[in-house]
Model the fold of this input.
Amino acid sequence: MADAEIDKVDKTILHALQEDARNISSGDIAERTGTSDSTVRKRIQRLESTGVIKGYSAMVDYQRSGYPLRMLLYCTASIPERGGLVPDILDIDGVVSVQELVTGEKNLLVTAVGESDSDITPIAQALLELGITVADEVLVRSHETQPFNGFDRPSEDHD
Amino acid sequence: MADAEIDKVDKTILHALQEDARNISSGDIAERTGTSDSTVRKRIQRLESTGVIKGYSAMVDYQRSGYPLRMLLYCTASIPERGGLVPDILDIDGVVSVQELVTGEKNLLVTAVGESDSDITPIAQALLELGITVADEVLVRSHETQPFNGFDRPSEDHD
DNA sequence: GATGAAATATATTCTAT
DNA sequence: ATAGAATATATTTCATC
Done:
């Protein structure tokens, strides 16, 4: 359950699956690791069961799928409550991520997606009902995400 | 190329692939849409080629894979340059996302992942070399992301 | 871990509606 | 644009070393 047992093979697997989770087979990854596909499959199962791999998801361009609005909501919640509120926040329609911030008065960063501004208002309302103050709202103009590049150098072992 | 042609079937496909991009086949999705697997496959190809689906990626728990540090870097870049800098920023080791913010002096939000604080310093340095000022750094205590839930109600067509 | 064979599932192509 | 059928590939499962 610890996080220490990530070796070269695991790194290569993580890198491959971050690159393309749908069209790469265990055999393809095995070629890169120099092991067999059954080994890769067992490793993947372990990574899944230990929670290192949380799942596999299509990366959707919300802009091109009818939801052009992306907004950051900086919130303030009381520290003791904050952690427990995260699941409730994720339940709010349009919310795609919640981050607890260590420093600052604005200790919660909520990201929401929608069709238009009118979709954001009810989100702020729902947050208020959870006892969370929305201190600031910032519209996101563009958004690029990529896999972490720490797994593509399996030569340097992490352990 | 427009973003308007997302119908019920597409929404169901997007929802399914966001839920599990690796272990769901076109046939499985076809059962949900009430169409055939060959139809689903063609729809997926279209969604991919129009850029609605940007790719498929394993969601990795960086905390459990040896990279417990997540940091937000609020930056300031001159507006005309900002957009063009995004690819350069993504090239920096440890950077996982770049967001252009519409309002505020801090008009760029960079998210980075690393093993320890010492991994963040060179990132700030690299940003400086691009002519970007790091105005603020905030450590992320916890981070939860989920698929947008707008695709799980295919009853209401978006068009 | 690795390997090989059997069983399954999946993708491709072409035809038709 | 969707569906169906036939073929070809690919993938997993499982027993074995």
